Amino acid sequence: IPSHYTIEKFIAGYMGVDSIKHDMCPDTCVAFTGPYSSLDMCPICSGDRYDCIRLCTSGGRSHVTHQKFVTIPLGPQLQALWRNSQHAKDIGYLREET
Question: Pseudo-torsion of CA 84, 88, 90, 93, nearest 10°?
């Protein structure tokens, strides 16, 4: 039986839509993206971005985040829908000329 990771990668390769994983504050205050991408602590609650125990025991090499969230970009999803002409007709993007 294939693993969840294997199935996820297969679907991403087949559909051309891949998810993006972002690090997040343990208390869900902020996501460490954009202006916060270089921070190691939350600017609101001062929570650590990475698991301190794993970070210390690995000598600073293992950056395991406390929490992540996943986004799926809209553009590739729409492109995947319109890639097939029948799907494009079904959603009303391509109208048949009469």
Answer: 180
E-only strand ranges, the chain: 20-24, 67-71
Q: Please, which contacts does 32-39 make with residues 24 or more away whose CB atoms are closer than 8 Å? A: none
Residue with the two structure tokens 């600073």: 60
Decide the pairing of beta strands 20-24 and 67-71: antiparallel
The proportion of the chain whose per-residue pLDDT surpasses 70, expressed as a percent, equals 93
Residues 41-81 have pLDDT tens digits of 899 998 888 888 887 888 877 788 888 888 888 887 777 77
Q: C-alpha distances in angstroms, 57 versus 47, 61, 62, 63, 91?
A: 19, 9, 9, 11, 53
Helix (H) / strand (E) element for 14: namely helix 4-15
Q: Quick check: pTM over 0.85? A: no
State how far the alpha carbon of 33 is from the alpha carbons of 14, 49, 74, in Å. 27, 12, 18
